Amino acid sequence: MRSRKRVRRLQITGLLLAGIVSLWMFREVGNHHLSSFNLGLGTTVFISRGYAFFLLFWTVFGSLAAIFFGGAFALASDSDWASRLVDRLRGTSDRSVIIAMSLLGLCIPLLIHWRLLLDADIADDESAYRFMAQLLASGRLYADSPPMKLFFDRAFMINDGKFYAQYFVGWPALLAPGVALGVPWLMNPIYSALTVPPIFLTLRQLGGRRCAATGAMIFLSAPLVQFGAATQLSHTSCIFALAWATFFAVRIYTGDERLWLHAALATCFSMAFFIRPSSALGIGLPLLAIWLISAASMEGKARWKAMAVFAAPALAFAVAFLLVNLAQNGSFTAVSYQRAISYARENGFRFAAWNWFPKDRTFAMELGPIGLAAAQTGVSLTRLNYALFGWPLAFVFLPFAGWRSYRSWVPWTMLICFGVTHFHMRNGGIDTFGPVHYLETALPLVLLTALGVTRLTSSLSSVPSKGLVGGLSSRAPLALCLGLITASALGYVPVRAMALHEVGSITGLAARTAEAELQGPSVIFVQRPLVPRHCNGTHHFNFWRPNNDPDLQNRILWVNHITLDHDSKLMELYPDREAFVMVWSQQCTPRFLPLSGLDEARVPPGAIGGSGELPSVEEMR
Predict the structure, then answer these.
(1) What b-and-e string marks burial along 446-477, b requiring 16 or more CB atoms within 10 Å of the CB?
(2) How many whole angstroms separate alpha carbon 581 and alpha carbon 558?
(3) pLDDT tens-digit series, residues 367-409
(4) Distances (CA, A) of 319 to 139, 237, 270, 326
(5) What does the alpha-carbon distance between residue 172 and residue 126 come to, in Å, rounded to a whole number?
(6) Are 213 and 97 in contact (CB under 8 A)?
(7) Minimal CA–CA distance to 187: which of 166, 170, 167?
(8) Proportion of the chain in helix, strand, coil states, percent, rounded to 5
(9) How far is CA 191 from CA 106, 153, 185, 254, in A?
């Protein structure tokens, strides 16, 4: 017996060492041949060269590491200490498991935000969302455009007399409590933590307790999900709303007759629609179909009560959606994305996100040749494959999820519907931490992966076999899942984390330096881009200065640099503030030069963009 245990320990040690050696070789390839895996991000359409090489070697060595680690976990699962651990977990209540995992869901993105991102924005969208949240916290849907508004124009903002962001107000409304309390960085981690319970409870309903724990573990270990939750982008809150909508839809479908579930489903879907309409429809339309089928199967008064309870919050959200459009954009049906494009045209595309925008193109979709759409979708799926879990093959367990077993058709229809509705999407979104336009697919993919592991385990357990091999075969799916998670945590995630740290270090450097060096109320004139391209090897998507608060009461105001004469004209409106022009040194550090005494030989006119003529200094007011 002792000899057998000794052999087992040697086998486990050998497999773990083989996995570690695989990861070591992977890192050394990057260190010696690929500038320590400088990912060279900054593209939305295709994969950059540096990132492509990183993925190539990760496919090989990440797969080896996952197999070796998985083998080690499978062997270790037969040991006495593993059995005791499993028994202890079985004796833990679901409530305790949910609370513990939810706390992890809160702490992980907070740690990423402060230690990796350094409290910096990694995308220009975040500043615009905060601006909108500040407006909502003050009870407004827009502010008045400030005098000499060209200094305050910026991408993703509308400044046509009304000053507001181009985004739907669902996420800003959820962000507003954090803005009011001075902790906007806390809100996405909270919503990410609150996504754990519906994932656990949905999977428990579909596949049992072990499936639920597996799904929650996969969700917490998914780098795309956790990195996204560390930002102030809208995707995390959308997943939160859709996850609860999924749970309520499943409860209704499986026969729970409580009326409040119908109102809860309508509220969560409507909330998701208010955050990201296209993602809500892509993921949520099957949930609405499930509800409709369930409601139609009810009898008599119960059916009409369910429909009335569902309709009340749905209609309230619909009316609010239309009224927001009317107040901001002057039409019930015109959304702010459309107004942003028309305003950019009216403004000659000065300080806009685009230098031009064709009139026959929608904001995110492009109904072009089907081959082009297939190519764009293929690139996005390839990026999603690696970025979602950090696994060499994120979809490895999907074929085993089945269709009817465990009602796997529910997440399958969610995923298929998203694919159909987003097939013509122009790109998968920024690649700083993954294709963000596909981030909401994490919900059905997590559910399907957990169901695939559970169903495969059940199938292998039913195969007649004897001895150790038979016992290990039934443990292999979960062991491989744990091996993939371990390989990702030790191989993929550190490289992505270092890229994010580099982005956060440089994109937040100007604001951190200004806060430390400038003591009194100030106005800082900024040239675009905010950070020179050469100052960041891992290219980023933060090109614009930070937004100010809607009432321009910040101690430091960030405005566009136009020309020194124009800048001086603006300062007539702010006689109690000091004026500085920000420039970057050769060492990529920001310097703040007093506006008085500068000449154009030292500070040339700023890059305004677009085709409109620059107003004269006298006309700026």
Answers:
(1) bbbbbbbbbbbbbebeeeeeeeeeeebebbbb
(2) 10
(3) 778 998 999 999 999 999 999 999 999 999 999 999 988 899 9
(4) 18, 21, 11, 11
(5) 10
(6) yes
(7) 170
(8) 65, 5, 30
(9) 8, 31, 11, 26
d(CA 438, CA 199) in angstroms, rounded, equals 18
- The full set of domain ranges for the chain reads 2-91+463-507, 113-364, 510-619
* Nearest CA-CA partner of 37 in 21, 49, 46: 49
- CA atoms of 166 and 158, how far apart (whole Å): 6
Q: What one-character-per-residue DSSP string does 109-138 give?
A: HHHIIIIISTT--SBHHHHHHHHHHHHHHT
* pLDDT number for residue 376: 92
Nearest to 262 by CA among 317, 299, 305, 309: 309
- For the record, the structure tokens of 380 come out as 């996005």
Q: Which residues contact 417 (CB under 8 A, 6 or more apart)?
A: 282, 283, 285, 286
Asked whether the beta carbons of 482 and 70 are under 8 A apart, the reply is yes
Residues 202 and 247 sit within 8 Å (Cβ to Cβ) = yes
Instruction: Report the run of H or E that residue 359 belongs to, with start and end.
Output: none
Collapse the DSSP code of 560 into the 3-class scheme (helix H, G, I; strand E, B; otherwise coil) and give the result.
Answer: strand
Tokens of 85: 């651990």
Place of tokens 């050696």: 21
CA torsion 555-559-563-565 (nearest 10°) is -40
Task: Give the sign of the dihedral formed by CA 289, CA 291, CA 292, CA 296.
Answer: positive
Structure tokens at 309: 């309870």
pLDDT tens digits along 86-104: 778 788 899 999 999 999 9
Structure-token pair, residue 223:
């780098």
- If one counts every other C-beta atom within 10 angstroms of the C-beta of residue 78, the result is 13
pLDDT single digits (tens) 89-142: 788 899 999 999 999 999 999 999 999 999 999 999 999 999 999 999 999 999
Encoding tokens for residue 372?
């082009």
Which segments of 499-597 are extended strands (E)?
522-526, 556-560, 578-584, 590-594
Cβ(224)–Cβ(161) below 8 Å: no
